[in-house]
Amino acid sequence: GPWPAGGSGGPAGGGRGGVEWAGRSLEGIEGAATGTGGIRQRSRGASSAQTTMGIEVRDYVRCQDSKVAFVRAAFGKNADVMAEFMRTNPYCADTELNNSDELKGKIALSLRGAEEGRTCSFVDKAKRVAEAGAVGLIIINSEDTLVSPGDSAREGSDIEIPVVGIRNSDAAQLPDGLMGSLLFQKVQALSSDERKHVRNVAMERGARNELAAMLLDDETPSEQILMEMDLLLSQHELVKASFGEEMETSFTLLEIEDVIDVATVIADNLGAHVVVISQGMFVLYRPSPQLGDRQVALQTEAGVGDEGGLGLEEELRDAVTRFTGEEDEEQVKEGGGVR
Fold first, then answer.
1. Which member of 17, 182, 203, 278 has the lowest number of beta carbons within 10 Å of its beta carbon?
2. Strands 163-166 and 136-140: what pairing?
3. How far is residue 35's CA from residue 40's CA, in Å, rounded to a whole number?
4. pTM score, whole prediction
């Protein structure tokens, strides 16, 4: 099925738990059920940030003196919250909750997966705790890797609480009844002019064969992909990620949406911006002050970025037009649009 796979919430729920596109899987972007995957995060900034697998982490759960790294879900609201922790009953939140009253105003913790004979998606869990009045949801992976809860059926658009995933071993640091916080890294949004300018710089570099590039395939663990992408962004600011020749020869509207989903998950967890979406590829941008004079100047310069650029939604519509022959704006919206 289309990305993200594993929407059932884990092995017991029947989900694979890896990014999948065109029938292929990138194990671990949602936290592989095999335990070999899991997203590792990085963000720019604070020197006090933790590091995980060589990638700097600023998104974390704070509880007393403990900092527990998490990864964001593909749905929900990425907003800081502070409340007491409370585990769901049943622990997998795979059926009606027995402790709904206790969850009101709390940050709920729920184990990934479902009891035998049941299915339960990440979105199902989030809806149950949100209806109970919880202000956030932490999904504990069934393996000791970070899990980014996905939304394969794209049913989580109405979830208004933050949803994150943590390692199994880290759950012990978040006992019921203690006060804690979900803290998200802040990334400065690009203005429309800045986005157009950065996109044009990316296109110019691409035309000169000077754009840093990375191939995404189904053999490389997601942790390695994020580490390599993190390093490339630090060194070049602009990086083109592509899915290989197979995607370039056969591309559908649904797969455009899948590319957006994969790009968004990677960008969100690395503090980057998606500035180009096209056939089987996307370009990420993240400012890197260490580059000094080699940084991409965000101010619009004469003749660069002031004409010919497309907004991200317009670029998606242009991609749909070129690859499907459809110019109907409604088709873009039906295909998912830009998150």
1. 203
2. parallel
3. 13
4. 0.67
